[in-house]
Amino acid sequence: MKQSRAYLAALAAGLLIALPCTDTIAAGVFPIATNTGTVGNPGGVEQAINLAFDGTNYLVGIQGDETADDSINAQLVGPTGALVGSRIKVGRNGGAPSVAFDGTNYLLVWTEGSFGSPNTVKFQFLNPSLQALGQPFEMFATQGSNWPFIAAAVFNGTRFAVVATLANLDVNFNFLSGDVYGTFIPKSTAPPRLDVAGPRVGTQFPLRLSGTPGIDYTIQKSTTLGTADWTALTTTAVSPTTGTLDLTDTGATTSRRFYRRQNRETESTGS
């Protein structure tokens, strides 16, 4: 993504979001990302199009840093406008990052790819310390000649609602075609579900995991329910497309066997 064009695209798509200030004393204008540089030089051109409020601080998604104009990163800002901690870098490149908060964790959304060629829209959960939860994932696929171009998410108290523009653009930023799509993503702490997916055949026992895309879940097995008897069967994430994953215990040699799922990030369990 070229640095200023993602910002202009966000303006055109109406993705700029302003949050009301809840502080009793106005903070005035304050710097958030001010590395020096010029277009074409490595680093220094930084942009932001929205922010998310967690009840205390604001998380700002930022494109560009001191190393590259398309580096995806984020910065926490306190209620007085002071920076909270260091800026985090997700190790990805692209443009137009946006953020939303689900009451526990953040969801970072950005466009990844080179401008003028097919892109993808990536999603990544971050905990309150801005550490990555699981791996980046995708929700939107290319439709005909339109590829995922830009997206933004909002949390409605139960789940994330996401809207994305899928478009075909030429190298001069002219839209050749475009459509708008939407999807929903469960909150990061939504309890996962583990179901039996079919009968045991020999030592093969099929299971189906349902959960939030991008979150790693550990499936554990036991034959006695004893605390020390639980062992990991696998650690995996569900399909972003279906929100489920089919897996098989290939060592189900006993007629009595117990399973439970565990969210690695929140340590929640269920059987």
Any key phrases for this structure?
271 residues; seven-stranded antiparallel beta sheet; Immunoglobulin-like; four-stranded antiparallel beta sheet; 2 domains; 46% strand; mainly beta; 1 helix
Mean pLDDT score: 84
The low-pLDDT segments are 1-25, 266-271
Cα radius of gyration in angstroms: 21 Å
Main beta sheet, described?
Answer: 7 strands, antiparallel
The number of strands is 17
Which range best describes the helical content: under 10%, 10-25%, 25-40%, 40-55%, 55-70% or over 70%? under 10%
What is the topology, as strand order, of the major beta sheet? 1-2-3-4-5-6-7
Total helices: the number is 1
Overall spatial form: globular
Order of helices and strands: HEEEEEEEEEEEEEEEEE
Give an account of the 3D structure.
The structure is a single chain. This protein has one helix spanning 3-13, and strands spanning 51-53, 58-63, 71-77, 83-101, 106-112, 120-126, 132-138, 147-155, 159-169, 175-186, 193-196, 205-210, 217-222, 231-236, 244-249, 258-263, 269-270. By secondary structure, it is mainly β. The chain folds into two domains: 3-186, no CATH class; 193-270, Sandwich (Immunoglobulin-like), CATH 2.60.40. The longest helix has 11 residues, at 3-13. 36% of the residues are buried.
